[in-house]
Structures are given as structure tokens and as C-alpha cells.
Design goal:
The protein has two domains: about 1-135 and about 145-180, Beta-lactamase (3-Layer(aba) Sandwich), CATH 3.40.710.10; about 180-260, 2-Layer Sandwich (Beta-Lactamase), CATH 3.30.450.330. Helices cover about 35% and strands about 20% of the residues. The protein has helices at about 40-45, 50-60, 60-70, 100-105, 115-125, 160-175, 240, 245-255, 265-270; strands at about 15, 20, 25-30, 35-40, 130, 140, 145-150, 155, 190-195, 210-215, 225-230. It has a three-stranded antiparallel β-sheet, sandwiched between helices. A two-stranded antiparallel sheet has the order 1-4. Strands 2-3 form a two-stranded antiparallel ribbon. Strand 6 (about 140) and strand 7 (about 145-150) form a beta hairpin. The mean pLDDT is about 95.
Length: about 270
């Protein structure tokens, strides 16, 4: 959207037949048994459709995709001053083939840290501005009573406010009408995205990684939360089914604790 390559609601812009052929390899959609068919970006995003993201990745191209990955800070540590912070692992741009571009486009075959992902998502919620995360809010001197507050540091403008607002709208739609439905909390606006990562070929015993990242409220956001479940057991390993319900449980306690009034409470006050 920032590069004017796609728009949110162009009907039939993407097509899902259940899989996408890339370099003689068929990459399946999680809904290969019931393909999404023709979709707009909004529908593909909400449905976590791998073929649609592969098609979009081809149009974006590896160089532009990597430029935005770098802009979101995913190639470097966040400088949070958290001891022992790790960094991401990506293919070198020169080694990105058609297959790597396809898998990167829907979030596979690279690793990033939870803190990097939280920081990138926060940039979307912060009108496109990437901020340096702070682990310590303030330092208080018990002898003098002085307080030293941590000053927020803006790193760079990654996206325009207009694009960031559109992305927040897509994130909210993914919760209300897509794979993020189990993250909902009655009375609160939540935007989120599910993630389901396959293990590397060399580490098949590690199992899948199910995740869900959420932002709330979707206007004037106060909370970004990421839940990651490694090697989930049970009937599903999908992030929207395994991690999203945990997000809902946490937000149902965190949002009232922060004093964020739900729409249900507002209606009760109006009636009284």
C-alpha cells in the first residue's frame, strides 16, 4: 500500500486455488481443502492466505521487501538495553531466490525475536513511527527522592500515517471477520494477526510455532501483546486457534486494569 502496489478492497486481486506453484514446488494454503478463491487484500489478510501473500511478494520484489524489513528494524537489535538480546536471521538479499521470496512473503524461513516483532507492530499502531523500546520506565533514588524518567526515542518514520491507519483497519478486520476471532474481548476494539510457523527441515522435532500479536484499542492504542506457543499439542497448531484465546484472556484483564473503558460499560452508564 505504501508503494502503491495494491489497495485494500480491489475485488479479485488475488486468487487462491489451495496452493501456489513456486519454482516447481507447490506451497499449500492452510485452507487447501476449501480454497479462498478470488480475494481482495482485506479478505486475503483476514484469511491468512499464503498464495495471496506469495502473489503480492512477487509484485513487491525482494529488494523493496528487504528495504521495508530493514526500515522496521528487523535486521538489527532493538537497542532496548535488555541484557543478552539476540538478533534475527535472514537470507542475504543476494541469495533470495523465487522460493525464498515466496516463503518470506508469508512469514517463513527466517527468525526474528519476539521483541523485534513487538517493536515492528508498535510502529504500525504508532502512526508508522518506529520507536526504540524501553524496558525501564523510570529510576527512583530512595535517598533523594529524585526520579529519572526514560525519554521515548523515535527511530524513524517507516510508513505514512495513512498507510498505518489502513493496516490498523486490516488488523481489526482480521479479528472481527478472520482468523483472529478467538482474540476478541467484548466491548473492546482489537486488531491482530495470527502466525503459524513450520519447523526447519533440520529440526522437525521442534514442532510448529503458533503465535498471535494484538493491538488494543485500535485507535489511540495502549497495549501491544504477543503470545507465542512452541510445539503446541492438541487438535490444532494454528496461531489463531491456539494463541489467540490466550491473548483474549490476557487483554480481558489488562484493558480494565489500565482503566480503558469498554463500550459495554459506556452503554450501561448512559442507560443509568
Amino acid at each position: 500500500m505504501e508503494e502503491n502496489i495494491t489497495i485494500v478492497d480491489r475485488p479479485g486481486e488475488f486468487y487462491c486455488s489451495g496452493s501456489e506453484q513456486v519454482s516447481a514446488i507447490n506451497i499449500r494454503c492452510w485452507r487447501d481443502h476449501n480454497p479462498h478463491g478470488s480475494q481482495s487484500l482485506r479478505q486475503a489478510f483476514a484469511g491468512s492466505c499464503n498464495p495471496a501473500f506469495i502473489q503480492l511478494g512477487r509484485r513487491i520484489g525482494a529488494e523493496t521487501l528487504y528495504r521495508y524489513i530493514q526500515a522496521f528494524g528487523l535486521f538489527e537489535k532493538t537497542n532496548s538495553n535488555l541484557y543478552g538480546e539476540s538478533n534475527s536471521v535472514f537470507h542475504k538479499l543476494s541469495n533470495v531466490t523465487e522460493y525464498e521470496l515466496a516463503t518470506i512473503s508469508f512469514g517463513q524461513r527466517f527468525t526474528i525475536t519476539p521483541l523485534q516483532l513487538i517493536t515492528a507492530a508498535s510502529a504500525i499502531a504508532n502512526e508508522g513511527v518506529l520507536m526504540q523500546p524501553n524496558i525501564i520506565k523510570e529510576i527512583r533514588n530512595p535517598n533523594t527522592g529524585s526520579i529519572t524518567e526514560t525519554v521515548p526515542v523515535a527511530v524513524r518514520q517507516v510508513l505514512s500515517k495513512e498507510t498505518a491507519d489502513q493496516l490498523m483497519e486490516l488488523l481489526e478486520y482480521a479479528v472481527t471477520d478472520g482468523t483472529g476471532g478467538f482474540s476478541r474481548v467484548p466491548g473492546y476494539s482489537i486488531g491482530g494477526k495470527s502466525g503459524t510457523s513450520e519447523p526447519l527441515e533440520s529440526n522437525r522435532n521442534d514442532g510448529y510455532v503458533a503465535s498471535f500479536i494484538a493491538v488494543s484499542p485500535t485507535t489511540h492504542a495502549q497495549v501491544v501483546i504477543l503470545v507465542v506457543i512452541y510445539n503446541p499439542k492438541g487438535h490444532s497448531y494454528q496461531g489463531g486457534q491456539v494463541a489467540a484465546p490466550v491473548v483474549s484472556q490476557i487483554l480481558s484483564e489488562v484493558l480494565p486494569y489500565l482503566g480503558i473503558v469498554s463500550s459495554q460499560d459506556s452503554r450501561k452508564q448512559c442507560k443509568s
